[in-house]
Design brief:
Helix content is about 40%, strand content about 20%. The longest helix is centred in the first third of the chain and has 34 residues. The protein is globular and about 90 Å long. Helix 1 runs parallel beside helix 6.
Length: about 575
């Protein structure tokens, strides 16, 4: 038994090496160091072989006959086999694809992104991803609660690293399948691009302010037209029929006023409304809808560097958010001049992107961060493309089906037509409290709202604090105060037990939307004030997984706080 204990420690060390080297492979591929990735792969192979060797011999043979101990050997052998499969069948293709799809190779040249490398490597990338997902599932199925202490920790570490690798692999697979056709490889595409303004917060980020029409042809991108949300037109009757659920939650404004189409957190629906409004107002069919916010643009500027905006402030990654979401409203009261500056800013950033200037790796990292935080969305009129998009964070869809991981969404909508949410800081934390035998979890969801508006916010220009009626409060809200509608989407099959605002229970208006129970609470926020909404949420049956949280991104952060581990034993 002493020999077995020693071997178990050896196995532990070997599995830790495997996990570490897999992490190194991911980092090497991210930075374009293919030689480093191959060296890390070789070390992982040696460590996995060592782990397998240490599960053989008389000690392990005898121990494996003891009740409950055979799981340890089976776990190690599974890990060793998975490592071997990844080394022989997956990583080589990933390395080759990484060489072809490195940031430098994706840099636009003469205004064009090369589509050919994407199509060349697509079959290998898709096949590698399928194998990666299969092998990750094999390791994820190991119940670490049944393993001895020396093995449980390293296996859990490896599970986490493989889950991260599988996520990156899936993104690569989606990219090589989507980008060529969406960049106009087969036919010319026309996209409506919405720039969401976080200063007037909406569920998907902000009010659509500026917009652009972008054409894509064989990888070449160009701006054909720029304008504002007003170009989508006003519609006495929604051009797309609204559902009863939508009207109950967001009113008919959702389909009437272009500024309000982002009330719903479901971006495919936002895109459908925008596309229908554009067709009605401009008589033109578009092939897709894209969206980004100023914070997302600031991430891109990390890679492109400073851009010059005609007639205004130069934009940098450090000042873009403040300039676009606050300064322009404070120093330039004329709306036409504001719109002209927004158009110039969008054109300048777009020009920097398509010119190929800057650091491609930093640009891609910025776009990835924007997508993760819900600041970058895409929808395609192609059913095939949309099926792929809807499975990604860029798709921005509220899930229609219940899975093992409960979905919680907390979205904010401004209620005063102001631009005060530049000063808003918000954070959503989720803590699973308990799990019943049927896999239903009890969750505590906490929304913390803080206004960083100055004490004299009521004296700010009307373009910031919203319209006034003879200087008096607008719809009952004092100048400089925020009114926010918070919409909590509970997991399908679950419900919202209760909600308290600043520890005082309040009634909750609850309806259903896309299969989710949705509770709406309205709060007012004075300058410098903090309000806390605390919900008790029940998940659906057989939802023992970790909570999947989505939050409205804001001007001062993503809004996503801490999510505690599942309260259920999984495995």
């Amino acid at each position: 038994m002493g020999l077995t204990a020693y071997q178990a420690l050896e196995v532990k060390g070997s599995l830790q090496v495997v996990a570490r080297e897999f992490e190194a492979i991911a980092e090497d591929l991210k930075t374009g160091d293919e030689d480093g990735a191959r060296a890390s792969l070789a070390k992982a192979q040696v460590a996995a072989a060592d782990a397998d060797d240490n599960t053989h011999g008389p000690g392990w043979w005898l121990t494996s006959r003891l009740p409950g101990v055979g799981d340890d050997i089976e776990a190690v052998r599974t890990v060793a086999d998975v490592t071997d499969v990844l080394a022989a069948e997956v990583i080589p293709d990933v390395v080759v694809a990484s060489e072809r799809l490195g940031p430098a190779n994706l840099r636009p040249r003469n205004g064009r992104i090369a589509i050919e490398p994407l199509r060349d490597v697509a079959p290998a990338v898709v096949a590698a991803d399928e194998r990666m997902q299969d092998q990750t599932e094999r390791v994820a199925a190991i119940d670490t609660g049944e393993l001895i202490a020396q093995l449980a920790g390293p296996v859990e570490l490896l599970q986490g690293k493989l889950e991260e690798a599988a996520s990156l692999s899936a993104k690569a697979s989606y990219a090589v399948r989507l980008l060529p056709t969406m960049l106009g490889a087969d036919d010319e595409r026309t996209y409506l691009v919405l720039f969401q303004n976080n200063a007037e917060i909406r569920a998907t980020g902000g009010m659509p302010g500026a917009l652009a029409v972008v054409e894509a042809k064989n990888g070449r991108l160009s701006i054909r037209r720029q304008g504002t949300a007003q170009d989508l037109g006003l519609h006495p009757e929604p051009p797309v029929r609204l559902t009863g659920e939508e009207i109950s939650l967001y009113g008919r404004k959702l389909g009437v006023y272009p500024a309000d189409i982002t009330f719903t957190p479901d971006f495919p629906r936002v895109a459908e409304l925008a596309r229908a409004m554009w067709l009605s107002a401009q008589g033109e069919r578009i092939d897709g809808v894209l969206s980004v916010d100023p914070v997302g643009l600031s991430y891109v500027l990390d890679g492109t560097g400073t851009v010059d905006v005609p007639g205004g402030t130069r934009l940098t990654s450090a000042n873009a958010v403040q300039v676009l979401l606050n300064d322009i409203y404070r120093v330039q009261p004329d709306q036409d001049m504001q719109n002209a500056y927004f158009a110039g800013a969008a054109k300048a950033v777009f020009g920097a992107l398509v010119s190929g200037r800057g650091q491609p790796a930093a640009i891609l990292e910025g776009l990835g961060r924007a997508a993760t935080e819900g600041r970058l969305y895409a929808w395609s009129a192609s059913e095939q493309e949309q099926r792929l998009l809807v499975a990604t964070s860029v798709g921005g869809a509220v899930p229609r089906d219940a899975g093992a991981s409960p979905y919680v969404g907390l979205f904010l909508n401004d209620g005063t037509a102001a631009k005060l949410q530049y000063y808003l800081e918000h954070r959503v934390d989720v803590e699973p409290l308990s799990c019943n035998p049927m896999g239903r979890q009890t969750l505590e969801v906490v929304l913390t709202l803080t206004s960083h508006a100055p004490e004299d916010a009521g004296r700010l220009p009307a373009s910031v604090i919203g319209p006034r009626d003879g200087g008096e409060a607008y719809i009952g809200v004092e100048p400089g105060h925020m009114r926010l509608n918070a919409h909590l989407y509970a997991p399908i099959g679950g419900w919202i037990e209760d909600v308290a605002v600043d520890r005082v229970d309040v009634p909750l208006n609850e309806v259903e939307h896309l299969g989710h129970p949705v509770g709406t609470a309205t709060v007012e926020l004075a300058p410098g004030e903090t309000r806390v909404l605390r919900y008790t949420v029940m998940t659906g049956l057989d939802q023992p997984g970790a909570v999947e949280l989505r939050v409205t991104p804001g001007a001062r952060g993503s809004g996503a706080g801490a999510v505690g581990p599942t309260a259920c034993k999984v495995g």
